[in-house]
Amino acid sequence: xxxxxxxxxxxxTKKLEGFPETIRFTTCNGNKRPVDPLTKLVDTNTNWxxxxxxxxxxxxxxLSYDATGVMLGEISGGLDAFDFDGITNQEFKENFGCNIKxxxxxxxxxxxxxxxxxxxxxxxxxxxxxxxxxQIRKQGEVIFENRWSGQMSVVSGVHPEGRTYSFxxxxxxxxxxxxxxxxxxxENLKLxxxxxxxxEVQEEKALDKTYxxxxxxxxxxxxxxxxxxxxxxxxGAYDDWRNVGMIGxxxxxxxxxxDLLFKDFDYWSSKQPKYETTxxxxxxxxxxxRQEGEVIGLGSLIRNYAEPNGYTPKQTFEEFKQEQQTExxxxxxxxxxxxxxxxxxxxxxxxxxxxxxxxxxxxILGGYQIKKDEIQLRLLDMLALEYGxxxxxxxxxxxxxxxxxxxxxxxxxxxxxxPGFLIEGKDCLLMGESGAGKTLGVLALSYSVATGxxxxxxxxxxxxxxxxxxxxxxxxxxxxSFGMVKKYAEMLNPKEKDLWEDNFNxxxxxxxxxxxxxxxxxxxxxxxxxxxxQGHPNGAPYKLVIVDSLKKVVSLAGIDFGIGPMDMVMQLAxxxxxxxxxxxxxxxxxxxxxxxxxxGIASSGGSSNIYQIPYxxxxxLATSSPEHKHITKWIVDKFRGEMRREFQYVxxxxxxxxxxxxxxxxxxxxxxxxxxxxxxIPGGGHEHFATAEEIAFSLDMNIKTIRNNMTQLKKSFLxxxxxxxxxxxxxxxxxxxxxxxxIRAEVEEWMKNKWGRV
Length: 758
What we know:
With 758 residues, the protein is an alpha+beta fold.
């Protein structure tokens, strides 16, 4: 059986079949604007230019966009597009030295307009530096365009005018290869790019400009602010002041440096009568966004403000270009300098080297506009590369055709280490409020991993073949963490305590040994990886890594918990867990809401990656009853491949005791059984359904508690509700037959009669 796709999705992906694996695509809306495929928001900056997707990755977005654009230039291996939009053969020949029909056949596509199409060509790497986007206009209309890096061309999906894109006959990527542009055409193209003066090219359209054009505009903006804009009441009007700032910010965004011109704008603003503070000016600067339909750019600034004051450029473009001739060499030197600085910094971070030197290196990187979180991201990436830790979903081989009968790899199988709680080689988030029992809970997991004993609501422990040691990293308590953990371990008082202790390795601050708390730093991660390589000192392999707490270890590493690269942190932990086939458990504190209580799975606080990325998410809540002063409610919010569940327990002489009674009989099972045996309810006389009042009476429980539980059971599809009664669903019957061995045959027979199969 093959995995079926929707017809629309299938048709779109088929259009991309045959494209080389080097080609990358982007997602667009119906107006050919790049959008984030998850939020559908238009990318107002240039983030899309570095965010390319493979066709397989596009499938995963389930058509949350209107069109697909093929990304051009270096990101797609030197892919260039000739956009024929009305140019005559004679006009083309005058510029490129050949007839249109003499170009080599290649992948070509159209939006449906007659004689309007685009053709794709590969340009050899040695010419990349000389290629740039440019247009030919005639009577105000674009008739030809060379499209390159920083641009994309919509190749499938919906045109703004309602048409759909299609490949020319015989020119689809699965019918013909993308041709390499002939050398003669390349030389003529380069000559045209250097000589053609597009008199009608609009100044405000960023994609029509080269990088040098944009730098020239930036120099003119600075000159205008310093010498040609008045410091007077003329700019007392907010709209005028905003326009000046808006133009500066748009120019900054064009070179991917949002604050490049802020200091210039702030200095000019400080001379205005209504200026307040740099802080308030910066807040306004960050909020500047072009309104829909608004046309504003440097040309507007010159025409409306500078020219009335007699403005003339201090230098022509050719003079500016002459000054910038060494810029490519400077850029090349900068790239090399950044590379060398990062390599030295990584070495120092790994060795725990000189703090002053590390700060100096970071300041050098800051001078190249590389921010703190970008430095941290690169350092973590370098560590993953050094130790061979897989982070990316990078495709190196051609996609396989697979059915549901195909074999799964070891990584795909997601074998449980402790059923219902831990998965081999995967990560887990265990979060809870203060005092909920997180430390006791995670120590219980460790005990089961070492001894195989079943715990909590699971009748199964860790299989003999999968038992092993635990590396417990407790950084949250500082120097007192060892005493705290030891005390909790003594509280458990398990039957095979010696075996457990022999397979537990504690990492934490140790004053006597001059050992500091472990952190998610390059040095700390290197130490961890080497430890996992070696295994426990007793020779046993590590099967479980506990990190207490997530926020503490990343904060100690200098990573901002709120805005730092938390996605990389979580992915790197996953990569380490996978490489060494260990279960990685993050201990994390929940964030209370304003009314007390928690915010469910999103109560983790910080980045949403914290609870979205892990394979398992467990949440602990503290509660109480007249019989028990401290009850822990354990909620399994996420366990890949299984349904959400919850249970309550208290600490007892036998490790833990479920407050519902025997460990094999949870409250859920009791409710399902009560519904099944409805005839046992006084006054009932029916089978397989019951009211909330009847269930409460039968179980001798508060009606409110029962109704709350029934709400959860409905959400889990274990029961259905109709006319005041709760009915056992197919899923609920199946669950009951698993949990209640004594009535399994009866339940399965009922399921067979009712639904035709078990």
